[in-house]
Amino acid sequence: MGESWQRRIDRAAALADAHAAGRPLLVAYGELLRLQRDCDETLRRTGDRVTGSLERDLPALRGCVGPMLEAVATIGPPPVAEEARRILDAAEPAIDAMLLMAWHASSGHQFLPKIVLQPYAHWLASIGLRPTDRNLVPGKGVCPFCGGAPQLSILVSAGGADGGGRQLVCATCFTTWPFGRIRCAQCGEEDEHRLGYFHSPAFDHLRVDACDTCRHYLKTVDLTRQGNAVPLVDEVAGAPLDLWARDHGYQKIELNLVGL
Ligand SMILES: [Zn+2]
Ligand SMILES: [Zn+2]
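# zinc ion complex -> structure
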């Protein structure tokens, strides 16, 4: 499973210090990561009562949902803070329904289920407890553990413990799995003339992998160029590349936690 929540938090702080332009985004993301770390600790305390069925695990997760929503309502950017307050005012069944609906979709762009479901799914992956009620169709570009869509891809050097090459990183449980270097993670296109790789000198170890067949993209973090990168966090730090991709008519396969 690689990195810990703390490593992500530390990386967000380091990148915020290093890049003035991206600082507000990285500081905000760091705060969200702290909430997710606290949720992870709450789940760890519930220990073996977690079953892998979200429906049955909802009582354990409720211990995370309230504190998270309250914090987001206070520190979140206005649209998300407002949504958090609205959900806090809703009854428990409405919150449960929101989580279950997001769980049963392979990709989701909604912030609030995602901030809760990521630590839950990551916890399941870290103890090898496969989700039993996500019921997603297995496919070529989806996570072999939970069936979710990829958040990003990484390039790792050959000879490493994980075999080298390109891997996708799940947006829900953060599992990584090998994937073809020249292949669209959305539609499977393998014609190199239909696939574009876009790079900005401002982010030497990041690129946009875009497909002209389905018009989707994701970002790739090249760990062979920057070994201390933390993929999820460096992906967020490369926000200008998302704006570039959107301006060029590409749609992201899965939005990250800060909505980019
Ligand atoms: Zn997954
Ligand atoms: Zn495609």
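# post-check
Residues 121, 143, 145-146, 148, 170, 172-173, 175 surround zinc ion (ligand 1) (CB under 6 Å).
The helical segments are 5-18, 23-46, 54-75, 78-89, 92-103, 111-126, 231-237, 239-247.
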